[in-house]
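Subject: Interface between my chains keeps coming out wrong

I've been trying for a while to get a sensible model of this assembly. When I model each chain on its own everything looks fine, but I need the whole thing in one frame so I can look at the contacts. Pasting all components below, labels as-is. Any help appreciated, I'm running out of ideas.
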Amino acid sequence: MIVVLLGPPGCGKGTQGERLSAALKVPKISTGDVIRSAMKAGTPLGLEAKSYYDKGDLVPDSLILDIIRETLAAPEQARGAILDGVVRTTPQAEGLATVLAGLGRTVDLVLMFQIADDELVGRLSSRVVCEACQSPFSGRNPGELHAECLKDPAGHLVRRKDDDPDAIRNRLNVYHAQTAPVVAWYKANAGPLVEINAVGTVEDVTARMLKAAGQIGSA
Ligand code: AMP
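Reply #2:
Try treating it as a single job with all components included. I did that and got this:
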């Protein structure tokens, strides 16, 4: 099963994607995580992506499609994939469809997480993430920065460079300009798109998502 998670930065698609991955027993692929690991390791991808990433701009479509092509062809993805943070532009949606067609697959479900900008700014400004496992922890107070991660004792909580106020504003502008049109593309061109209300507790949103995925009871 191929599921695309769409939604603005901070809408919770990473956290919900983990839960959907566990429910469907299909791995989650996050291009943001791939890029952060590449930047940390100083690979050519990381070096090329860094200037875009730090400002909150999208990295070029060609880099993203290279990641997608390579990842989806790997044996780990034989049962499918939950795509978190891909796609973010219409050319990426078209490119993903072509890559999948080459593998004899299509997008089975697009989940669109709906939430207002004001709520997102609050969430992202108070977010810290584990530098090791990249798990986000929302709403923790700044005193907890550098604290030990609750999931990975080897990791400490840090602020993401692109969660500073200027980058947050830019990421939301980029989302509205470049990613929101992808919703119309999916409605016109491919598989079922379901809108999910992303306001509420993590459990509330998970229940809505699993209902949409027809998976309630199998989580
Ligand atoms: P995320 O962790 O999904 O919020 O992504 C963090 C950053 O990684 C984005 O602001 C972009 O700079 C880059 N990025 C991740 N996925 C994509 C994508 N599909 N297209 C372009 N840039 C991306």
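Reply #3:
Confirming on my end. Helices lie at 13-24, 31-41, 44-55, 61-72, 90-102, 117-125, 165-189, 202-212.
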